[in-house]
Amino acid sequence: MKKSLLLIAIAGTLLCVGAWGWAMPANFPDFSTKTLDGKIITNALFSEKKLTMVNIWTTWCPPCINEMPDLGNMGRAMPEGTQLIGIILDVKGSNDSKTIDAAKKILSWAEADFIQILPSKEMEFILGGVDAIPTTIFVDFKSQIVGQPLVGARDEKAYRTEIDKLLKSMP
Question: For the whole prediction, is pTM greater than 0.90?
Answer without folding.
Answer: no
